């Protein structure tokens, strides 16, 4: 913000960016099966990576990536109790905001 109160904007080519969330329980104490991710953004390219772990403190076990479709959805298959997500944009591709990732999943039953 300048001294006269105007807000500046960035110019030039977009840079590659990463939005990552640490593994956490989506459904406390239960495993989930992730079927799809949707990037909440105006980006039209990028990749989504899912880190599915048995517990949040475990080392990464299953890391699955998928390419973003033009509708913002990424078909992906992963299952675990603690799910971490990451979206990577492509340098030079247009995007102005990214609010997060929405996961489509189902909860596994209890025994």
Explain what you see.
This protein is mostly beta strands. Helices cover 0% and strands 50% of the residues. The protein has no helices and 7 strands. A 4-stranded antiparallel sheet has the order 1-6-3-4, with no helix packed on it. It has a 3-stranded antiparallel sheet with strand order 5-2-7, with no helix packed on it. A hairpin with an 8-residue loop joins strand 3 and strand 4. The protein is elongated and about 65 Å long. The protein starts with 17 loop residues before the first strand and ends with a strand.
Number of strands: 7
Element order: H for helix, E for strand: EEEEEEE
Mean of all residue-level pLDDT scores: 87
**Main sheet: strands, sense, barrel:** 4 strands, antiparallel
Chain-wise SSE layout:
Layout: E1 18-25, E2 32-41, E3 47-53, E4 62-67, E5 73-80, E6 82-88, E7 98-107
Antiparallel strand pairs: 1-6, 2-5, 2-7, 3-4, 3-6
Features:
111 residues; mainly beta
Give a quick summary of the entry.
With about 110 residues, the protein is mainly beta.
């Amino acid at each position: 913000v300048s001294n006269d109160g105007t807000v500046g904007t960035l110019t030039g080519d977009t840079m590659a960016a990463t939005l990552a969330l640490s593994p956490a329980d989506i459904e406390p104490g239960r495993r989930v099966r992730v079927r799809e991710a949707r990037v909440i953004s105006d980006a039209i390219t990028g990749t989504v990576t899912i880190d599915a772990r048995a517990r949040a403190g475990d080392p990464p076990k299953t890391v699955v990536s998928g390419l973003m479709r033009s509708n913002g959805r990424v078909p992906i298959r992963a299952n675990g109790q603690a799910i971490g997500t990451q979206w990577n944009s492509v340098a030079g591709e247009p995007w102005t905001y990214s609010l997060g990732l929405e996961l489509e999943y189902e909860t596994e039953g209890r025994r």
